[in-house]
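Worked Example 4.2. Consider the chain below.
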Amino acid sequence: MKESSRQERIIRTSLIGILVNLLIAAVKIVIGTLASSIAIVSEGINNATDAGSSFLTYVGTKLSGKHPDEKHPFGYGRIEYLTGMVVGILILYAGISMLKESIDGILHPSDMKVSMLMVLIVAGTAVTKFCLGMYTIKIGKSVESEVLLAVGEDGRNDSFFSGLTILSSVIFLFTGFSLDAYAGIVFSFVVIKSGVDALKNTASDLIAQKEREEARLKKEELARQLYKEIRATDGVISAIDMMLHDYGPDRYSGSVNIEIDHKRSIGEVYEEIHRLQLRIMEEYHVTMVFGIYAVDEDTSSVVDIRRYIGKFVRVNEHVKSFHALYLSKGTNTLYCDFIVDYALRDWEGLRKSFTDYMKKQYPEYEISLTIETEFV
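Applying the procedure from the previous section yields the following structure tokens:
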């Protein structure tokens, strides 16, 4: 699934959650106040909190879609983890507040004024909340969003609590005995557990992935040394697209793409690359995986294409370099990768501009352009 499509689905689901939860919250707070029901008012407050959670999900998804920059070369996707933590805290707070109100209700009971009409309205909101919760869980699973899953599970649990509230209200109508506050205690623990689970699912990601400024600078220096080592290796024309992941003090796992002459086979370059791999592990403590681009630097037509692309790159301030140029004669497709700076926002505009530029000189080729930023 494309990232843009994923974000659109999360945003749409969040907006639906905001609207539905605000409506349910208003209905329950009014009915709970009229009926002097702690449980119903608590549900209403919890629904208002759910609307806030959906709003945070919306804001977090919007922010996570920001373009990469120098401090965040992989973008802002981890904001979604932070949003998940805030949502978990809100759910936890709602559960603790419910528990407090329910205990106060047991210690200081008040007369309830419940009617069958009120019970039926609460039942209607419970069905609506259950459907919303299951829909949110379904979308959360399809887009792999921990935030939506937390919000959806909380909404589904709310509908179960509404069932307890309805049951206690019906018992009160027929017997005059109120279980309202006790029902509130039961559900408060369910809500608290949902909040704790949401925090556990996201806190570990944030803790494991936090990277200090000093560590970032150290990684950049390591990348410079590795690039120098790799580019100096016999058979390697260039190296690009390096990624490094820290797995403890001076222990890294990484990947990098290298360009080799298209006429050379993997068997011919394997020994050099394998020695390089062992040397990097021994000297730099990096387990490096290599990807390979086949590059044609001899065929005159490809050399002309390279020069033609170079002219485009030189007049485009946001394009830092290009690589992985390859002409597939079987499919008549021209492949090329651009490294762009973090100031460029309109990647699709660049793609169209480059395609139009190439089609003027080489209309017979399909153009396949990959745009990326430097990862280290």
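The first strand starts at residue 238 and ends at 246. The chain has a mean pLDDT of 83. Compare this with Example 4.1 before moving on.
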